[in-house]
TrEMBL record:
Transmembrane segments: 37-56
Cofactor(s) it depends on: L-ascorbate
Protein name: Urotensin-2 receptor 2
A single cellular component GO annotation: membrane
Keyword rRNA processing: no
Source organism of the structure: Clupea harengus
Ranges of residues in domain Fe2OG dioxygenase: 200-301
Record's keyword annotation contains Lyase: no
Pfam family, one: 2OG-FeII_Oxy_3
Region forming the signal peptide: none
Taxonomy, superkingdom: Eukaryota
Native organism taxonomy: Eukaryota, Metazoa, Chordata, Craniata, Vertebrata
Gene: uts2r2
UniProt GO molecular function: dioxygenase activity; iron ion binding; L-ascorbic acid binding; oxidoreductase activity, acting on paired donors, with incorporation or reduction of molecular oxygen
């Protein structure tokens, strides 16, 4: 009896232990499922966040190619854009201040031969100096030439040797090309060309993939030319080398609220636009090769006008 009782007690005790074990197992299983569900939720949330971020950046990065390098335009391609409100704060110059804003590209104003001649001019000039970082400039007006981490005056720096670098023909070509670009801008925007003036800085640029050393080398930042350069009302860029064969990266990018729009450089191609904040832009980083271009810009304000560049007089005398 006692034994039986004991036996019964044992049986009852085993059942209780079994129950406990079962309960423990169930609890463990439940908490395992909870953990698994938690991990799953984390994974789902991460995936959703990643997808959202991807979608968001995708949206921001939508890139429309306005004009690709392989296309040769037979007539200017004009892309109207709404003028920014900034113009309300600017002084107006009748016949010049934009009434409508745009960006445009032409392949017929400058020939590839002329672009090559200008590129050779840039190569000769820039071979005398050059930045340590990826971007070098040469300004024929002021003589500013990138040199290491600063600038020198190429006319002073090379003295009489300048005659081996530039000829009168080079300067004549620059003047001719500048005047054709001015005519094209005037026609496209419906301006009086005689009320537009060349303004500074106008410069040749050479960009490669070398890492930037100074702020001057950081050409890729988004900017508004009218803010950066003050006097600019119309910016033009004459490309002297080809995207995709002379260099990689280095596309010109208009940054619009609805996405990015690019112009692919091509030797002889002129891209021009009103310089206000309707044409916020940047240059993509060059990843290989060397990119040459000239920035030639115009102002409506006669106080900011500059003349065509000329060879310094001692050199002009030396040149036959
Ligand atoms: O070289 C280019 O394509 C653009 C240069 C530019 O934005 C500038 O000179 O202000
Ligand atoms: Fe610019």
């Amino acid at each position: 009896m006692v034994a039986q009782r004991r036996g019964n007690v044992k049986v009852n005790g085993d059942a209780a232990i079994e129950k406990k074990i079962k309960r423990g197992n169930a609890q463990r299983q439940a908490s395992q499922w909870k953990r698994r569900a938690g991990t799953l939720w984390c994974a789902v949330l991460t995936a959703v966040a990643t997808l959202g971020w991807w979608y968001f950046t995708l949206d921001q990065d939508i890139t429309e190619t306005l004009v690709s390098r392989s296309v040769v335009l037979q007539r200017p391609k004009v892309f109207p854009v709404q003028c920014s409100e900034d113009y309300e704060n600017y002084k107006r110059f009748p016949g010049c201040t934009p009434l409508s804003c745009a960006r445009a590209v032409t392949d017929t104003v400058v020939t590839r031969e002329e672009a090559l001649a200008l590129r050779q001019l840039a190569e000769r000039g820039l071979a005398l100096g050059g930045s340590e970082g990826g971007a070098s400039i040469l300004d024929l007006h002021s003589g500013a030439l990138s040199m290491g981490q600063q600038f020198v005056n190429i006319y002073k720096y090379s003295g009489a040797q300048i005659k081996d670098v530039f000829s009168k023909e080079d300067f004549d070509l620059y003047k001719d090309v500048r005047s054709r670009i001015q005519g094209m801008i005037a026609d496209t925007f419906g301006l009086d060309s005689s009320r537009m003036y060349l303004t500074k800085p106008t410069f040749f640029s050479r960009i490669n993939s070398t890492e930037a050393r100074t702020a001057h080398d950081e050409y890729w930042h988004p900017h508004i030319d009218k803010v950066t350069y003050g006097s600019f009302d119309y910016t033009s860029l004459l490309y002297l080398s080809d995207y995709g064969s002379d260099f990689g990266g280095g596309r010109f990018i208009f940054i619009d609220a609805s996405g990015n729009r690019t112009v692919e450089p091509r030797a002889g191609r002129v891209s021009f636009f009103s310089s206000g904040s309707e044409n916020l832009h940047r240059v993509e980083k060059v990843t290989w090769g060397t990119r040459y271009a000239i920035t030639v810009s115009f102002t409506c304000d006669p106080d900011h006008a500059i003349d065509n560049p000329t060879l310094p007089s001692p050199v002009t005398q030396i040149t036959p």
